[in-house]
Amino acid sequence: MRKVALVGTGLAKFTKDDVSIESLMLLAIKSLFENTQNVTQKDIDVVLTSTSDNSKYLSSIISELTGLTPKISHSVESLCNSGANSTVSAFAYVASGLADVALVIGAERFDSPGLVLEWDKSRGQYKHPIYWSSMFTKAHMRKYGTTKEDLAIVSAKNHKNATANPYAYFEKEYSIDEIMQSKNLTEDVRLLDCSLPCSGSAAILLVSEEIAKKITDCPIWITGIGQKTISAGFTKNTDLTTMKSTIDAATDAYKMSNIQPTDIDVAEIHDAFTICEIIELEDLRFAKKGKGSNYARNCYETQDRKINPRGGLIGSGHPLGATGIAQIVEIVQQLQEKAGKRQVQDAKVGLVQNMSAAATSSTVLILQS
After folding, report:
1. Are residues 157 and 234 in the same domain?
2. Are 133 and 262 members of one domain?
3. Bridge-partner residues for 206, per DSSP?
4. pLDDT > 70: percent of the chain
């Protein structure tokens, strides 16, 4: 199996603008080509589009609009986990030798059809993610004593981090008190405990080791991958204080890369809701079970940007198909020391955790400089 490097990234600002999915993708691709030297349209072997808007022939449309004629093109749809899943597919094409250069583009509009599942409607389950997040929150509170202030600290931290991210949807800090006083959506979840859907896009370029040497002096290597799907509906979870798919995916990614959680210098984790970050800190083994809120509080109080330096989903916004790819872009920039005011000092090893629908599926990636 060949080594695979990330050598190019592109982003478009996350907004509420009413822009077509095609236009959003073109913005990220334009940004990527502007930021990446020694790559042209004719070099692209693979085009993968990541989105929940799967009613279109998007990968081929985007190829035509950008003057690309790839060997392989298709879309990847796995709700909020689409971005990381599409990256794993691109990795497989390059690692296997089927391709040398793969372009992955993720995008979503603010009114994405993936926000509410027809599957859940048909089975009479809760239609909106706010309901499962509320159940996870209640369960964690009961078992570990997690408080509403603990949740607010996660939101305050990530909104503060987002102020250093020029592509973030939110552009202001919120105090812990403001977050705690924000509108209650359920008994335990407030408006500012939630990520918000928005329009946005992100793109990355994956290449073989041989090609990487021709393109850049600072490639970022994908050294660990873990994926796990346990169901389609969150009610299959037997313990709502943990995310089993994340535990399984992280175990495989750590094993493949031959590193430990303590080796991670910077991480982008899927904080669709504040409780998600707390649980993920535990399931990724950054903190002991029941201590994720303490870990987040310490990061906030010490202004440590190790977790979600770009602001996470809560601060940056959550365009479903772009989210996982935007997370990867952040880690690449961190490991290349190109993150500006967000830079985590001496970052050499990074982690991305992307998931869907109450972690019914999860993907974990390990990146190294």
Report:
1. yes
2. yes
3. 6, 102
4. 94
The string of DSSP letters for 215-270 reads H-SS-EEEEEEEEEE--SSGGG-S-TTS-HHHHHHHHHHHHHHT--GGG--EEEE-
Per-residue pLDDT tens digits for 300-324: 999 999 999 999 999 999 999 999 9
Q: What is the mean pLDDT of residues 184-208?
A: 96
Residue 92, domain extent: 4-112+199-222
User: By three-state DSSP, how is residue 75 classified?
Assistant: strand
For residue 107, what are the contacts with CB-CB under 8 A and spacing of at least 6?
A: 21, 24, 25, 28, 49, 50, 51, 200, 201, 202, 319, 321, 322
Residues 128 and 256 in one domain: yes
CATH no. for residue 183?
3.40.47.10
Across all residues in the chain, what is the average pLDDT? Answer: 93
> Do 285 and 163 belong to one domain?
yes
DSSP letters, 119-175, are HHHHHT---SHHHHHHHHHHHHHHHH---HHHHHHHHHHHHHHHTT-TT-S--S---
- Of 213 and 121, the structure prediction assigns the larger pLDDT to 213
In angstroms, the CA 30 to CA 50 distance is 17
Distance CA 2, CA 210 (A): 9
The whole-model pTM stands at 0.95
Q: What is the distance between the alpha carbons of residues 104 and 73, in angstroms, rounded to a whole number?
A: 10
**pLDDT tens for each residue of 67-106:** 999 999 999 998 899 999 999 999 999 999 999 999 999 9
Whether residue 234 is found in the same domain as residue 363: yes
Catalytic residues: 80, 318
Q: Check whether 297 has a pLDDT greater than 70.
A: yes
